[in-house]
Here is the input.
Amino acid sequence: MSKVTHISHSAAETEALGEAWGRSAQAGWVLGLSGDLGAGKTQLVRGLARGLGVTARVSSPTFALANEYGGGRLLLAHIDLYRLETEHQIIGAGLEEYLRPAGVTVIEWAERWGSLLSSPRAVGAFRRVQIEVLEKGSRRIVYEDSGA
Here is the structure.
């Protein structure tokens, strides 16, 4: 497992990091994002979408739970678990299909999914991303690649 830490000093830097990840993303990737409200999770996803070549406007799917964006190099599924509190609610919402994507899945509030995300049988190429607010505008973004 590899772990890399980035310090972002602005929303633009956070998006640029996501864009770089999008350019190197491969089919089957699942990125689990964790961080407080306003930490920059959706900004990272916007950049990732741009790196994949998605031209649609990316917004957080807080009420829809999942948005899909095509038109890029790979299909991007963007899930937001903020309104769901337990694994049972998440499974009941039918979101498991996104754990083995043909394209790339990004899950905001991934820690709410619990143990299922740590099972290599349930999730293929899983990457965990923790975003921490350091001070106004600055973020520590820790990326862990499971190596799968």
